[in-house]
Design goal:
Its main location: secreted. By secondary structure, the chain is of the alpha/beta class. The chain has 14 helices and 16 strands. About 50% of the residues are buried.
């Protein structure tokens, strides 16, 4: 018998004995324990992954990956991470490419020294159904999925996940995410607060949103100024892009299947000047970012005449499509032949992108929930200028006074970015040199920001 099998059996026996003292509920998590992922380095923390059924009738099951904190997980908070799209994987993007404990490298996993599970117990959820390993046995459930359905399913997931992991029920809980998670996260938090009025289950302590979609027109139309100020488009094209046809109008027409000739001409000109050889999620990057980082599908519909060039090698996709990896993760493919970063079977209500969520952020703040909005400053998809404008406007609407004036913050002996805080409850920060996926491109600075957020402390103003 292999040593790994002995280790698994011994661990299961020890934990089953523990259940005699902690209750039958805790036994459910034993089935999801991961003794080790193929090719991973030795680690001291525990990992789990598996399914939570959120709709018995349609057999809708959401897949999760959970990495406990490296040190003293019993005292660390619980953090839920959601990626965007809508329809892209928190497992493949968040866990295995951004802030999770490992990154694939060939046939093995390498340790991410700036993993967020250094500071928290990290829970990654593939949502909605049809994303990654999450599935429904009724394929009609993939049609017409929208923000309301996603928020409801995510709420049910957390309720049932706490049944598997009752030791986390009263733990400080934070929700984080990026991109279209600017919809997912506030909408889920809103439902959690409503649920708590009936049954106090969620100990929600804060929300952090990275390069988020919060208000369609402001976020999308800030691209024109960003392109122009970074030299990506000419003066004449900037004028057309802000007067003749702005980006929110183009996206609105695109999703309704009726792009006007004038918008078609403007977008063709913008596309020619910005070039398909510049990554819009990091305008300073020289090399391609693989399809792992294609999460903002709704945010960047294919422009007229644009062909998408992706990297040939995608180590995350290769790793998660290995049979031994799927077995270790207790994952299965239902109705699809391959695990994909962004779902090809999910038919999401794309016009939901026009629903403003900045007002929901305001509701959270009024309920006493701290909110951090942060921006990788090299991202032209959801530029920092739009996010900063929205945060400033919300602070004024809520009557929040500036408690930390706009200033630089430091990571090590370098400027990590800029920050401003309102009423000690609403914060804005940039991450210097970071892309749309900030923890991928600036992992060390992102970890400093994350730790300050969890500790409710100002970002370092000196080194």
């Amino acid at each position: 018998m292999s040593s790994l099998r002995w280790k698994t059996m011994a661990m299961a026996l020890a934990l089953s004995q523990l259940c005699l003292f902690t209750g039958v509920e805790a036994f459910l998590s034993l089935f999801d324990i991961i003794p080790a992922l193929p090719g991973q380095p030795p680690v001291s923390f525990q990992q789990y992954s598996g399914y939570v059924t959120v709709d018995e009738k349609n057999q809708k099951a959401l897949f999760y990956y959970f990495a406990e904190a490296e040190i003293d997980p019993f005292s660390k908070p619980l953090v839920l991470w959601l990626n965007g799209g809508p329809g892209c994987s928190s497992l493949g993007v968040g866990a295995f490419s951004e802030n999770g404990p490992f990154r694939p490298s060939g046939q093995i996993l390498v340790k991410n020294e700036y993993s967020w599970n250094r500071e928290a117990n990290m829970l990654y959820l593939e949502t909605p159904i049809g994303v990654g390993f999450s599935y429904s046995t009724d394929t009609s459930a993939y049609v017409g999925v929208n923000d309301k359905i996603t928020a409801r399913d995510n709420l049910v997931f957390l309720q049932k996940w706490f049944v598997k992991f009752p030791q986390y029920r009263n733990r400080s809980l934070y929700i984080t995410g990026e991109s279209y998670a600017g919809h997912y996260v506030p909408q889920l938090a809103q439902l959690m607060l409503q649920f708590n009025k009936k049954q106090n289950l969620f100990n929600l302590k804060g929300v952090a949103l990275g390069n988020p979609v919060l208000e369609f027109a402001t976020d999308f139309n800030s691209r024109a100024e960003y392109f122009w100020s970074h030299g990506l488009i000419s003066d004449s094209t900037y004028k057309m892009f802000t007067s003749v046809c702005n980006y929110s109008r183009y996206v609105n027409e695109y999703f309704r299947g009726s792009v006007s000739s004038i918008c078609s001409r403007v977008m063709s000109q913008v596309g020619r000047e910005t070039s398909r050889f510049v990554d819009k999620y990091d305008v300073t990057l020289d090399v391609c970012i693989s399809s792992v980082f294609a999460q903002p599908k709704v945010l960047s519909p294919q422009q007229v005449g644009e062909s998408i060039d992706v990297c040939v090698e995608d180590e995350t996709v290769n790793y998660l499509n290995r049979r031994d990896v799927q077995m270790a993760l207790h994952a299965r493919l239902v109705g699809v032949n391959r695990w994909e970063v962004c779902s090809n079977i999910l038919d999401y209500e794309r016009l939901d992108v026009e629903i403003p969520t900045i007002s929901i952020v305001g509701e959270l703040i009024k309920a006493g929930i701290p909110v951090l909005v942060y921006s990788g400053d090299q991202d032209s998809v959801i530029p920092l200028t739009g996010s900063r404008t929205l945060v400033q406007g919300l602070a004024e609407k809520l009557g929040l006074k500036t408690t930390v004036p706009y200033r630089v913050w430091f990571e090590g002996k370098q400027v990590g970015g800029w920050t401003q805080v309102y009423g000690n409850v609403l914060s804005f920060a940039t991450i210097r040199g970071a892309s749309h996926e900030a923890p991928f491109s600036q992992p060390e600075r992102s970890l400093v920001l994350f730790k300050a957020f969890l500790d409710s402390r100002p970002l370092p103003e000196a080194f």
